């Protein structure tokens, strides 16, 4: 796609010999108000360089470049050069890109470099609740965005399957467990045991000592503890995989903290050799006071390891195994300090590549009556949220399409219901905390996933009504008369389609899927304005072909944008 900012920078630098192309490019702006041009060039910084008033400089530049074929109009407004591109040229170049349905929005800035994205990462033997959706869908979208940018992505699910909580679960099962109950309803049953453990431990503190011993035995490979732990893990993964299937999310690798249990001693030894390890109340720590952080705990007083030890081993293993370009962790903002601590320890060990380990934080989810807590059993199961969203969607579709085939209703209900939940999660900046409310999640009105999906279906409907012959002509841009796409609504839509590839780049640079979410809402709104303002299926064949071409481009942009969020784009709704 033509980079108009670069083209304009070259033209302006050619007129102002004291200005480099790089400096000119830095100054070129896109005005908020389209009435001020497609691009603008402020001349304030040139006043000192050229010893002239910025208004006078702007007037000189505007006059010098006005006759360039790139521009329809150039005007000086105060100290700005406002440039209006040739609409027909701009529209044609944009549609040339947008007609490549499979690749529109993609670039190759990654050049095949390997990026690891770790996301979802629930704890086994605990419910897959609504709080887990944030890491799961944000991480999946970052994976999809980086693939679209030309990176090779390895998707990792680093499940929490180690630590003292599993000692608690083992003790709880021994005291109150029933094998058949776990088999019949694993996660709910295990959650009940876990909740009961914390209630009973308040009255009987010796249970905590029992749990610590059980985990220490697990680390030592004691047969009974390992057998129970493996069973809890298998049953948990069955539950998790059912939810991943609903979300259409896959991983290249599912490992757990336990995978690194035999890889940690190396780093404990390295810390000792470098004089970084200190004893504190029987525990082993790395003092980080010089870096403004609390100490990093490496081993507990009983010799068992902690999250920090395992994450150090995990990072080094990934670098040595995959030689990653970036190693991205999609983990809640509550862990900001923790990530700073273990990354600093890795740096102190001499692994300078730790700068390529990136923590992508996100805000927390709470319930209307307070924070979720698996200890207290106060959670909303993610599977319940997804099923309710699908069921509500099924009711709406069945009501609007009473004669529709049942399989069609089920298919669209799944795409739209699941999509509504995903879109709601990705529609706001990821760092914001939010309160989970059923009525908000299941509200399909306004700037929502169903609205964008419906706009895609509207585009598909227009193409069906236009017929394949018209659509074929529209895809061959030599058959298109772009003068029919000069209206304000058509041009506003074209501008948004042109911006899609750069929007994907920006979303990748900022690890922020909501940038794409907002952009495809804007494309959907712009197409709907175009749809209402214009008679697309005109009796005039040339006009019809041109407007169908823009419809194809809008459909491709919306579909590919939804795909980057992990959503489907229904052809009918």
Describe this structure in words.
This protein is 55% helix and 11% strand. By secondary structure, it is α/β, with parallel strands linked by helices. Among the domains are: 4-85, Gyrase A, domain 2; 114-263 and 310-367, Rossmann fold (3-Layer(aba) Sandwich). A five-stranded parallel sheet has the order 6-5-4-10-11, with helices on both faces. Strands 1-3-2 form a three-stranded antiparallel sheet. α6 links the parallel β4 and β5 (152-159). Residues 6-85 form the Arginyl tRNA synthetase N-terminal domain. One of its GO terms (biological process) is arginyl-tRNA aminoacylation. It is an enzyme of class 6 (ligase).
Q: What's the main sheet like?
A: 5 strands, parallel
Based on the structure given, which CATH architecture of the domain at 114-263 and 310-367 is correct? Answer: 3-Layer(aba) Sandwich
Number of helices: 22
CATH C-level category of the domain at 114-263 and 310-367: Alpha Beta
Q: How many DSSP-defined strands?
A: 14
Side by side, the strands of the main sheet go: 6-5-4-10-11
Q: What global shape is seen? A: globular
Coarse structural class: alpha/beta
Amino-to-carboxy terminus distance: 32 Å
Instruction: Give average pLDDT, whole number.
Output: 92
What is the CATH T-level topology of the domain at 114-263 and 310-367? Rossmann fold
The Cα radius of gyration reads: 29 Å
CATH superfamily of the domain at 114-263 and 310-367: HUPs
């Amino acid at each position: 796609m033509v980079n108009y900012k670069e083209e304009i920078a070259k033209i302006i630098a050619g007129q102002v010999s004291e200005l480099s192309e790089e400096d000119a490019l830095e100054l070129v702006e896109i005005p908020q108000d389209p009435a001020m041009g497609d691009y603008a060039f402020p001349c304030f910084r040139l006043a000192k360089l050229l010893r002239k008033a910025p208004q006078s400089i702007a007037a000189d530049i505007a006059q010098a470049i006005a006759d360039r074929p790139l521009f329809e109009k150039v005007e000086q407004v105060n100290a700005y050069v406002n440039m209006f591109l040739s609409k027909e040229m701009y529209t044609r170049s944009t549609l040339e890109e947008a007609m490549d349905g499979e690749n529109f929005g993609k670039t190759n800035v990654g050049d095949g470099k390997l990026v690891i994205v770790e996301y979802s990462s629930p704890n086994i033997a605990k419910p897959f609740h609504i709080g887990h959706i944030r890491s799961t869908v944000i991480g999946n979208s970052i994976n999809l965005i980086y693939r679209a940018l030309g990176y090779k992505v390895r998707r990792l699910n680093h499940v929490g399957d180690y630590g003292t909580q599993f000692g608690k679960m083992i003790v709880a099962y021994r005291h109150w467990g029933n094998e058949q109950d776990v088999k019949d309803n694993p996660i709910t049953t295990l959650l009940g045991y876990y909740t009961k453990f914390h209630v009973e431990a308040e009255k009987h503190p010796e249970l905590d000592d029992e749990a610590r011993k059980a985990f220490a035995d697990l680390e030592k490979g004691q047969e009974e503890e390992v057998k129970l732990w493996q069973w809890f893990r298998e049953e948990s993964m069955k539950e998790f995989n059912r939810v991943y299937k609903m979300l259409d999310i896959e991983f290249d690798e599912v490992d757990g903290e336990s995978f690194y249990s035999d890889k940690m001693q190396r780093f404990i030894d390295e810390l000792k050799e470098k004089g970084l390890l200190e004893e504190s109340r029987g525990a082993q720590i790395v003092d980080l006071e010089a870096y403004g952080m609390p100490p990093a705990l490496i081993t507990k007083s009983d010799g068992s390891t902690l999250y920090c030890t395992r994450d150090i081993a995990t990072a080094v293993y990934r670098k040595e195994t995959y030689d990653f370009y970036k190693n991205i962790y999609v983990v809640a903002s509550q862990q900001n300090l923790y990530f700073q601590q273990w990354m600093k320890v890795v740096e102190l060990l001499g692994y300078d590549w730790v700068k390529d380990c990136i923590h992508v934080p996100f805000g927390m989810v709470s319930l209307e009556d307070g924070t979720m807590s698996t200890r207290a059993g106060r959670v909303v199961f993610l599977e319940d949220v997804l099923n309710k969203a699908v069921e509500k969607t099924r009711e709406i579709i069945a009501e609007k399409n009473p004669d529709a085939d049942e399989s069609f209703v089920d298919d669209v209900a799944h795409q739209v219901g699941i999509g509504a939940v995903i879109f709601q999660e990705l529609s706001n900046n990821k760092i914001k905390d939010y309160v989970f409310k059923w009525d908000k999640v299941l509200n399909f009105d306004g700037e929502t996933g169903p609205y964008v999906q419906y706009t895609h279906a509207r585009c598909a409907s227009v193409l069906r009504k236009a017929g394949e012959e018209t659509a074929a002509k529209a895809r061959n841009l030599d058959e298109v008369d772009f003068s029919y796409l000069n209206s304000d609504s058509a041009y506003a839509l074209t501008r948004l389609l042109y911006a899609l590839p750069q929007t994907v780049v920006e979303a990748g640079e900022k690890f922020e899927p909501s940038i794409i979410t907002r952009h495809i809402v804007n494309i959907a709104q712009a197409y709907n304005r175009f749809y209402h303002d214009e008679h697309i299926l005109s009796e005039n064949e040339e006009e019809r072909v041109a407007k169908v071409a823009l419809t194809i481009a809008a459909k491709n942009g919306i579909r590919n944008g939804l795909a980057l969020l992990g959503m489907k784009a229904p052809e009918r709704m």
